[in-house]
Amino acid sequence: MDNATASLPSSGATIDPKEAAHFGALAAEWWDPKGSSAMLHKLNPVRLGFVREAIDGHFCTDSRGLKPLAGKRALDAGCGAGLLCEPLARMGASVTGVDAAPENIAAASGHAAAMGLAIDYRAGELGSLGLSGFDLVCSLEVIEHVADKAAFIASLAAALAPDGLMILSCPNRTARSRVLLVEAAERLGHVPRGTHEWSQFVTPEELREMAEGAGLDLGTPRGISWSPLKGLHLSDDLALNYIVTARLR
Predict the structure, then answer these.
(1) Overall number of domains in the chain
(2) CA–CA dist 141, 174 (Å, integer)
(3) Which of 53, 99, 125, 244 could anchor a disulfide with 104, C-beta 3.0 to 4.6 Å?
C-alpha cells in the first residue's frame, strides 16, 4: 500500500489517525523490496508505465525523452516514503510529497537526500497546506485510506493547475478484490495485516461521481491485474485495482 493522506479544512480532517499510525509504523521498511512494502515495489513499475504514458499524452512529450516533466511541478498526495516522488523528480519535475504520517516524511526525506534528489516533503492535511498550481497531481492507493473521500478529491482538484493532469489509483470493491487483495494477500503475508479495509475500496463509478463533484472529468480507467505468467500488469480488467487520469473541466 502506498500512502495515507489529508484534505479540506472546511470539512474537517480527512486523515484517519489509525491509518496514519499503521503506515507510519512501517516507515523504516518502505524502501526494502523484500520488506512489508514488497507488493508495492512490484506494483510501482506497472503504475509508472501508466504515469509515463499519461504524461507523454497530456503534455505532448517524446516518449524517448528522459525529462518529460522538466520545468513542471508535481504533487504526490499520500506519498509514503517517496516511491513515486523520486521517479517523478528524475523525470525533471519539481516535486512536493505530502503524507499523513510524519514517520513516512522523515523516511522519504532521508532517502531522497541519500539519492541526491531535492524533494519538498511535508506532513499534514493536504487542504491546509495552501498548495496549488501543480501541473501533475498524483494520489495512488490512497483514497481507500482517507476518512472523507469526496473532500479529499476536492482538495486534489484545488491543487491542480487549470491545464494540469491528475492520476489516481484505487482497489476496486468487488468480490474478487476481497478474496485476493484482503483475505489472501494479508493471510499469506504479501501485505501487512490491517493494511486494507475492503469496505473502503472505491468503485470506478463512485470515483467518477466524486470527481464530477469536484469539477473533474475522469478518463477511461485501466485495470491492474495479476496472472501467473505476467505478474502484475495493465489490462482491461478492473476487478482488482484500477488507475485513471482526470482533468479539470
Answers:
(1) 1
(2) 16
(3) 99
CA proximity to 11, closest of 144, 132, 122, 149: 149
Task: Write the burial class of residue 168 (CB in 10 Å: 0-12 exposed, 13-18 middle, 19+ buried).
Answer: buried
Any domain includes 33: yes
State the DSSP string of 156-209: HHHHEEEEEEEEEEEE--SHHHIIIIIIIHHHTTSS-TTS--GGG---HHHHHH
Q: What percent of the chain has pLDDT over 90?
A: 72
Residues 122-136: tens digit of each pLDDT: 999 999 999 999 999
Residues 6+ apart with CB under 8 A from 189: none
Grid coordinates 503524507 are at which residue? 99
> Is residue 90 a part of any domain in this protein?
yes
Identify whether 99 is part of a domain.
yes
Q: How far is CA 68 from the centre of its chain?
A: 19
Torsion of CA 106, 111, 116, 119, to 10 degrees: -50
pLDDT tens-place string over residues 163-200:
999 999 999 999 998 888 877 656 655 666 666 788 99
> Is residue 180 domain-resident?
no
